[in-house]
Amino acid sequence: MVTMIHSLTLSATELASDRLLLRKAQEIDREGFIELATDPEVRAYLGGPKPRGDVEWYIDAVGAAGLTSHPGSFVIADITTNRLVGTLALERRSADRPGHVIEDGEELELSYVLRRSAWGAGLAFEAATTVLRAAAEELPDQPVVVVTQTAHLRSLKLAARLGFRHVSTFEEFGAEQTLSTAGLHAFTT
Ligand SMILES: CC(C)(COP(=O)(O)OP(=O)(O)OC[C@H]1O[C@@H](n2cnc3c(N)ncnc32)[C@H](O)[C@@H]1OP(=O)(O)O)[C@@H](O)C(=O)NCCC(=O)NCCS
Fold first, then answer.
1. Is residue 155 in some structural domain?
2. If you write DSSP's letter for every residue of 70-89 in order, what string do you get?
3. pLDDT, tens only, 109-143
4. Which of 7, 46, 143, 146 falls between 20 and 30 A from 1, CA-CA?
5. Nearest CA to ligand 1 atom 31
6. Is residue 10 domain-resident?
7. How far is Cα 64 from Cα 25, in angstroms, rounded to an integer?
C-alpha cells in the first residue's frame, strides 16, 4: 500500500483560483519559460541563470507539452490573460536525494517559481494553496516537503505562511538547504 501511495500525485491537469489558472504548458508559454530559466534574480537560489541558447534548445527538443508532462506539474497562468506567471510542481522527492521526513523517501515535494514581475502579490501562495487543497481531497494523508536554500528568505517565508514547519538542514548543490514539512490533510478545506 505504501508503494502505491508513493507512485501518486494529484491527477488534475487544470485548476482555477480567484486570480490564477493552473494548467499544462502551451506554445504561448515559450517566452515565459525562457525568462524563468534565464533571469538571474529568479535563478539566484536555483543554481544561477541558464544560457538562453540551451533553454531554447531544450524547449524545442521537448516541445511545449513536454515542459509540464509529469503529473502534478503546472504552469501558473493569469486567469484573465492566460499569460504565464510561473510554474509549480507537486511531485515525488526521489529517495536517492538527501532531505527526507520518512524512511523510504519519495514524499510529495512542493516547488514553485514565479516571474520576477509577479513576486510580492501573493500569487505563489494562492497557486500552492490551490494545488495542495486539490491534492488533499484526492490523496491519503501523508507528509509534503518543501526544500529551499536556507539563504532564500522569500521562499522560507512562503513555506512558513503555507503552514510548513522547519525540520532540518542539509547540504545539496553546494549550499545549505532547509527542509520543511506539513501534513497534506492540513490543506483540506
Ligand atoms: C519564492 C517565490 C515564489 C515567492 O514569491 P512571493 O511573491 O514572495 O510569494 P507569495 O505568493 O507568498 O507572496 C508574498 C508577498 O505578497 C504580498 N501580497 C500582496 N498581496 C497579497 C495577497 N493577496 N495575498 C497574500 N500575499 C499578498 C505579501 O505581503 C508578501 O509580500 P512581501 O514579500 O513583501 O512580504 C518567488 O520569490 C520566486 O519565484 N523565487 C525564485 C524561484 C525560487 O527560488 N523558488 C523556490 C524554489 S522551491
1. yes
2. STTEEEEEETTT--EEEEEE
3. 999 999 999 999 999 999 999 999 999 999 999 99
4. 146
5. 120
6. no
7. 6
Domain count, the chain: 1
pTM, entire model = 0.96
- Whether residue 73 is contained in a domain is answered as yes
119 within ligand 1 shell (Cβ under 6 A): yes
Query: 113: domain CATH number?
Result: 3.40.630.30
- Residue 57 in any domain: the answer is yes
Residue type, 130: T
Whether 64 is in the pocket of ligand 1, judged by its Cβ within 6 Å, is no
Pocket test for ligand 1, best of 84, 112, 116, 152 (most atoms within 8 A of CB): 112
Residue 152's domain spans which residues?
A: 15-187
- Residues 155 and 152: their CA atoms lie apart, in Å, by 6
- How many angstroms does the Cα of residue 58 sit away from the middle of ligand 1? 28
- 81-104 residue pLDDT tens: 999 999 999 999 999 999 999 999
